[in-house]
Amino acid sequence: MSAAARFDLKMDPDEKIIVAKAAALMGTTMAGFVRAAAKEKAQDLLQREMRVSLTPRDFELFTKALDSAFKPNPALKEALSQARRRVRRA
Questions:
Q1: Ramachandran sector of residue 27 (left: φ over 0; alpha: ψ -120 to 50; beta: rest)
Q2: How far apart are CA 89 and CA 55, in angstroms?
Q3: Domain chopping of the chain, boundaries
Q4: How far apart are CA 23 and CA 41, in angstroms?
Q5: What is the tens place of the pLDDT at every residue in 69-90?
Q6: Is the pTM of this model over 0.90?
Q7: Cα–Cα dist 39/47, whole Å
Q8: Which residue in 52, 61, 76, 78 could disulfide with 72, CB within 3.0 to 4.6 Å?
Q9: CA 5 to CA 39: how far, in whole Å?
Q10: CA distances from 3 to 6, 17, 43 (A)
Q11: By C-alpha distance, which of 38, 19, 39 is closest to 29?
């Protein structure tokens, strides 16, 4: 059994009344309601931030870049050349 982590929260009286009413409607405690609401909001935010959104124009450019042949630029060619000189293979 894992130990529960503690999180204290202070709210003003009006906020407490709203949360208490919502918790009662859901048939849960205030702590349970706040825990579930905070987890849901956090998951939504994390999912949204992990997504990459592109405009239709940017998506078209991106897919064209993926579909086209790769051509290393001079900076990449130089970096690879330096790496080959520095790395010794057994």
A1: left
A2: 44
A3: 13-86
A4: 16
A5: 888 999 999 999 999 988 877 6
A6: no
A7: 12
A8: 76
A9: 14
A10: 9, 30, 22
A11: 19
